[in-house]
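Before relying on records like the one below, remember that each one covers exactly one chain. Contacts with other chains, cofactors or solvent are not represented anywhere in the record.
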Amino acid sequence: MGYLLLLLATLAWSFVGVLVKTSSTMVDSSVITFARFFFGVIFLGIILFIRDGKIQLRIGLKWIWIGAVGKALNYTFENIAIKLGYSYGNILVQPVQTVVLLLAAWLMFKEKITPRGWLAALLCIAGVLVVGWNGKPVSELMEGSGLTSLLFTLAGIGAAIHVLSQRMLLKVMDNGNMNLSVFFVSTLVVITPIPMQTDGLGLVGPVTVWAVLALVLLGVITGLSFFWFAEAIKRVPFAIVAIVGNSMVLFTLLWSYLFFDEPMTRYLIAGTVIFIAGILLLNFPMPRRNKEGAVPEPAR
């Protein structure tokens, strides 16, 4: 069961870009962001109620709000960037998150970062730069391609803030109710600008079954993938978690090619290999060594 839950979480995360791209044909990025949280709260709440017979919302904690703002920024920038660029672009979020968490561990928690950790950070940064560049001339980067890379970088910073909040909140809450509380507050944060829109409350295209289904599935992923992943890591060896969890990037590239025929250049492949190597180097367990500098798994 642990392996199945790990695979479900990994596959769910890999479809985010495709689903965001599909739903963006009907609604704008602000509505997509709201739907990811709104449906996520509903589905996660149902699962927790079935499991525990109750749900516990705690919105008075400082780290709940910090995590909610971080996750809201993560989804907001990610959705805008996917709409503007390629559906595979969100593969940049994970390496950026890894580097930010490593720096946070060093600066905020005074943890010792090993040479292996710094090398991993350099590989992540190098991979992100190569993917963002993708062999394009500087003029083209300045006109638009560079903007999407910047947005994904900001999304990665937001994701890292959310993971940091999880680290603090897990001391006082269980994983399920913690995420439910954070996503509930995130829903309140991102719903604010929607009523102020004058162009049909975010409706930008025809209403289609596929776009509506994509919005709902994004909520399922938000609500349940964390639950699946948390349960999986209790049952699956960490080495398998590191390998399978990071295979999400490869699946994301595959779906973007199959569904949207997006170009797979040698620069994209090379950059992806570089930052995956960095993430695995940081998280893969070493014999007879503590995982100093290791960071939490990504939160989608």
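The longest helix spans residues 138-169.
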